[in-house]
Amino acid sequence: MDTRKELALKFFASQIRLETFRQVANLGFGHLPGSLSVADLLAVLYGSKMNIRPEEPNWPERDIMVMSKGHAGPAVYSTLALKGYFPMSWLSTLNKPGTRLPSHCDRLLTPGVDMTAGSLGQGISAGLGLALAQKVKGIDAKTYIIVGDGECNEGEVWEAFLFAPQRKLDNVIVFIDRNLKQLDGTTAEVLALGDMAAKLEAFGWHTQTINGQDVLAISEAIDAAHTVKDRPSAIVMNTIKGAGVKELEEMEINHHIRLSPDMSERGMKVLEEAHAALAEVLRENNITPIPTALDRE
Amino acid sequence: MYKVIYDGSIEKKGHKAVFSETMMDLVETDPDVVYLDADLMNSSGTMALWKKHPDRAFNCGICEANMMAVAAGLSLGGLKPYAHSFGTFASRRCYDQVFISQGYADNPVRIYGSDPGVCAAYNGGTHMPFEDMALMRAIPQACVFDIADGVQFEWVLRKVKDATSGVQYIRSTRKNNAAIYAPGSEFEIGKGNVLRDGTDLTIIASGIMVGDAMAVAESLAKEGISIRVVDMFTVKPLDVDLVVKCARETGVIVTSENHNIIGGLGEAVATALVENYPVPMIRHGVEDRFGQVGSVDELREAYGLTPEKLTELVRKALQRK
User: Which domains does chain B have, with CATH numbers?
Assistant: First the structure.
């Protein structure tokens, strides 16, 4: 990927972060840090990889994305709104009465959400079912599944890790958001996962380990995974829970957080400044940003 | 329409054969039908299906949770999945996957829970579901079927293929039951079948207890007691209109089920009566106990799932009129 494309994706990721922070700040609490850790991945998937039609969310031949760590809903909603699946104004309704954007992803409520998740461990299995359906129906499309590292405590995840290689699901990429934290503390303290890449490799997966906050690394890993035949791919993404907002990154317990007005103001300032700086770089280099709904507003 | 052929004889074909032959036909005649099993294909009779159609019949291994959520994904992907395990493992073992990924997320899957209640026999208490109907009834929009005979089993398996919403849970033995219906009989989901008319009392039965209910009615007829028998094969949605009609016309109800009397057919009927037309009733079934090992006959005796016990409860209920 050339630097221009990389910068455009970084800019898109920065927009996703900004809108995600704004959603949660508007409410005052939520699963913000675990949403921020997957922002760069969502930018790459929806900004350059996925074959989708926002105007036809259920187009049968689309690529599919299942956010198995369903609490990252806010990051998904920002991405989908920016892609034009629904009005940006919905983002201010997160978790409010009558909202179409609940804290955990719900396919029946939100256009563009491919599968309901929230009860951990189930999204990966359902995603594999969707990928298997693509195979049975002869649809040449991909299924992307995002699993939290804390989520890998669930036994069902390991059942799914056995199932995908057995079925040779080479249309699947599972991303492990290895941010090293879960609700009660670090994954090492709660239930150590050890070397996830080695474990997945031993389960028969094509496995890569990357910096999950690096859009270029993510993009290249996805391209490499697409060349693999007859087995599924896993990409272990080393990430930071709260990535992009130092204050959140440094919180010891940061799965579900409360944002005081001061914290919200500080966080928004950090993200807005980073976004403005990137905008300047794009302008200087005459780089066209990835089109978003904001262009039309 | 259905035709009742009950004469006390046992059906010639076991339900394992009914299931495997029907599944083979469904897979071969509808390109959207897929089959999942959790290392119990040898038990469900679907080994031949797996070998012949490995691209449509998936052995998921002993991973019921993953299987049920994979089935939900297959459903969402435009296919019509059927999934089998023993009733215990098809319900409580993977309840949240059925509840959330299939039910809550509206991805209908057709689940066959085999060996209901005492039919688990020599597999014993760990394999003996007396609570599967209770669990499945509690899932919003789920349909719950307790199968009386092979004719009905095949009809239900074919009928639920085109279900567009709601978990479809079908419990049936793998063995032979009393023959109740003539081949080619047609049913209606959500409607109970009046197998025998009567005026003194109605037995509302399901599953393997339907034959017993017929035997009891025949026996008591000789004493001049007129028993109506209803096969309530759709335990959910319950045929409330028929329950009320029977209450109004016969004045007293006994339910009979191969399941805990908590959460199953009896409780469903009791609720319908209390809310609409209260009359005396008694629930015949497993009285809040765990399963145990034994032959089906021994277990029927142990839990009182016998014509004798049912007769005793019918007499008791008649005294309350």
Answer: 15-172 (3.40.50.970), 193-320 (3.40.50.920)
